[in-house]
Amino acid sequence: MREFTSPALVTLPDDATLTDGLFDLVERRPEQVVIRRKVDDGFVDVTYREFFDLVLAAAGGLVARGVGPGDRVALMSRTRYEWTVLDYAIWMAGAVTVPVYETSSADQIEWIITDAEVTLALVETEQHAALVAEVRDRTPTLREVLVIDSGALETLRAAGAAVTSEQLAAARAGVRGDSVATIIYTSGTTGRPKGCELSHGALLFDVKAAEAHLPELFSSQRDPSTLLFLPLAHAFARLVQNAAVQIGFPLAYSADVSTLVADLGKARPSYLLAAPRIFEKVHARARHTAHASGKGRIFDAAEKAAIAYSQALDTPGGPGIGLRLRHTLFDRLVYGKLRAVLGGRVRYAISGSAPLSDRLNHFFRGIGVVVLEGYGLTETAPALSANRPSHVKIGTVGQPFPGVTVRIADDGEILVRGPLLFSGYHANETATKEAIDADGFLRTGDLGTLDDEGFLRITGRKKEILVTAGGKNVAPAPLEHLLQTHPLISQAMVIGDRRPFIAALLTLDEEALERWLSERGRPADTPAATLTEDPELLAELRGAIDTANASVSHAESIKKFTVLPMDFTVESGELTPSLKVRRALVMDKYADAVTSLYGDRR
């Protein structure tokens, strides 16, 4: 058993809540920009005073419509400024926010509304309202649905005009640090999602701990700002939202992938929060563009120099003079253009949810964008560790946040304790007791190691370890992440539990596939489903398999693979809203493909 605790640099009063900071900042910095609202093709600044007025007006409307302290209010929307306004308005009214992914099905909406006993739902579109209407007769606590696109903020403002500041103060009066602020339903890969209750204190502690751990990102002296494009129903995006409001820096929003590059250019953020897939796509697209325009040799040389430069930063002597000169040259020719795609000001990016390959991590650091891998769960509010700009160990998820203890159990499971832990699972005492051990540590279900400096390395999921028929334990995640760095591969699922060998199910990236086909003079619109047995494509993918196999032992290597006819999506059910693969569902849905690999239907 191994354990590491970071020094406790953050203390909060027992009665500290998420709305306290808003009152303080609007008093001290009323004209500071806190939100950049998307309007048409640009962004409009919203000051603390304007944001505060919007929040108070919406909170008054909620109180006027019968929302009381402790009531649950569902919030279903894409990432947009109204999400943040309504989130803080719900807290200002003393109520509890229950996020719902905007891609949720009627069945998922029904479960969340009934389990959380939601009294009022705020949804983005009339289509969302129609989904709620489908299950309305099975959600007895739900009294009303308001639609953001149909003027929900204006409706609340009008309703709350008669609500006094004394009434709002009374609504907040009973809220303390240990009061539940939000119930986030974890998008579990099996079974019904559990409602994770997070208190005001846990969410606020996570913001302050992140600020102390990563001052280079949040310090006002560095003119911080960000563009948020991950769904705000996800706990990591919520942390960034709360950091912007509580610390005080501009937060812009982008909900449409098709406009993301343009939005980055207009918002010009100083740091980003992104999933590894975003970095993989940026790299793959840049490489393809260079090769398609006849500049492939320059890009390949620049890529090699960037990786070598980053790797040299971790050596005692640092990059040599020759490497420095090549790096300076390629910065003018290549790296500056890549940074411009991200808006031109991004120097740091936070990556979570899955590992980023070491090669890509070195590549981005080499071009001047340091990717800080971090780790956390919904149950930890959510971030609990991260690499710091001043101390990066590529391949790890950094050191614990201040005041957080990480322990590695005898079986390798990562255990966590600290003020950022969740309060429990809503109406599920059994699951709560199963999640917390006798010492108050959360059982994360992840496997990992700690080095002498407290850097945490994730090695796999406890429940996803495959045990072959020969008794070999294989962690699928490292192989899967290596495979997904290949531009043609969208998803990779490694299988082999109780089987004679390890195999893989692959899906194709449609955008990369179109480019690959065009480069070979083949119709770019050829459906992926017709290419699953294409010899040329299979040979390309076999190269990716061989590269991944080089990182593991023979017993752990992938012996066979098959290409599935369609990609995994949230809508078709193979992915959770946080883009994790529902392994059991995939195994059931593609049982015939598994049979073709192993020759039986076990």
Automatic annotation (TrEMBL):
Organism: Frankia nepalensis
Zinc recorded as keyword: no
One example GO MF annotation: long-chain fatty acid-CoA ligase activity
Catalytic activity line of the entry: a long-chain fatty acid + ATP + CoA = a long-chain fatty acyl-CoA + AMP + diphosphate
Domain of life: Bacteria
InterPro entries per the UniProt record, alphabetical: AMP-bd_C_sf (IPR045851), AMP-binding_CS (IPR020845), AMP-dep_synth/lig_dom (IPR000873), ANL_N_sf (IPR042099)
Domain AMP-dependent synthetase/ligase: 26-426
Protein name (database record): Long-chain fatty acid--CoA ligase
